[in-house]
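Archive maintenance. Older records in this collection stored only the sequence; we are now back-filling the structure field for every entry so that each record is complete. The fields below show one back-filled record exactly as it appears after the update. Entries are processed alphabetically, and 3-oxo-isoapionate kinase is next in the queue.

ARCHIVE ENTRY
Title: 3-oxo-isoapionate kinase
Organism field: Paraburkholderia rhynchosiae
Length field: 456
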Amino acid sequence: MSDHNHGGPQYAFYGDDFTGATDTLAHLARAGLRTMLLFAPPDANRLATLGPLDAIGIAGAARTMSPDEQQHELAGVGEAFAALRVRVMHYKVCSTFDSAPQTGSIGVAIRTLRQYCANALVAVIGGQPNLRRYCVFGELYAAAAADDGEPSIYRIDRHPTMSRHPVTPMNEADLCVHLRRQGVENVQSIDWRCYAAGDAALQAELQRRLTLHPDAVLFDVLDDSHLQAIGRVLAHHAAIASPLLAVGASSVAQAYASALEQHAAVEATPRPSCLTRARGPVFILAGSLSPLTERQIRAAHSYLRIELDPLKMTGDSAFDYLAARVAAIADALRDGRNVLAFTARRHASNASDSHRALPQLAHACAALLRQVLGAVRLQRIGIAGGDTSSIAVRALGAWGLSYLAPLSAGVTVCRVHADSPELDGVELMLKGGQMGGADLFEQLLEGYNYDERRNV
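Back-filled structure field:
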């Protein structure tokens, strides 16, 4: 599905955490686009080794950064993507848009990246239906599983998890207001009724909004047909002037890929949708504190569960405690047992204390993972927790990921690319706290046919 009139990748994305970045990688790869996810902007030598690409991504950690850190990180990203002459520059955010003026600010990202984008349109895509995230009249809604496991839809400021996020609680559902609080002053909104009027009417309405010189234009999303209409808008405007800056979850990639598929000159290469059973013991590190991850831990019956005390992992005796936990995990894995190491939630009941401890804990989890992989050769591993994933994977020393297979909506298994032969080729699952069913960790072990289960 290459663009034959374009020398390099036409689509570039930066994921503000690693788990979300792998979801975008999966959507692009499954659409037939040759895609690679890197951990830093590529130099000429790295680009030469990658071969022809339709899309390229950078897995970052901007959602945990201060404004100054974000500006520094994203300026380099914007410059690198602009140098590649991409048509769309996608700032990938969590589908719940959780962010704050001083932590992971989407406003800072827009102001920084738009300097590298020639197109006047900054498109914000407000929902991702396959993850049960919806935007209607500018307000964001998201599903959450109840105690009986059945999902209910909540306005995001009343969501049982995201409204109480320890770092970036979502206390505003109106995304225009949410972005305004982060310095994006003039946000125009295209509501879902415009899509039914047809492409010409939608383009005319967008053009009318652009005459108001907005800082961004927010698009409602309620179903996949809306993404297809938005995709045609993105493709049309990106062809006029590029790069075009788009902000949103993996739905941005879904939208743009749908437009490419409608005009593809060649058939997309079918992508695997079946994960085979693990060939050896599996290790999972769960640093997420979400209620859903807790249910997944309880359901992981095929694993030896080893609890990690966050206070001891970050306290004065952290070195000795970590060494003892690593030894216990490595011994069990050598014996052929699957191991699930998880941070205990009971130590994180105080939101302000957990906020301060989170960066330390994520780095401690990264050190544990690095030491376990140094002690035992493994073929398949999993990491649960957005912040934990970002820091842990960076600490391993790998340089990129490619798509292997889907595991669940929003959860992908990737192949690790690294200069180290011990790490190169490892199968890696990254998952955010809100993603996957209760049996996700069992699926990682047993294998999973995503398309077959999805169509049941």
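Update note: The domain at 274-454 is CATH 3.40.980.20 (Molybdenum Cofactor Biosythetic Enzyme; Chain A). Residues 1-5, 347-356 have pLDDT under 50 and may be disordered.
Entry marked complete.
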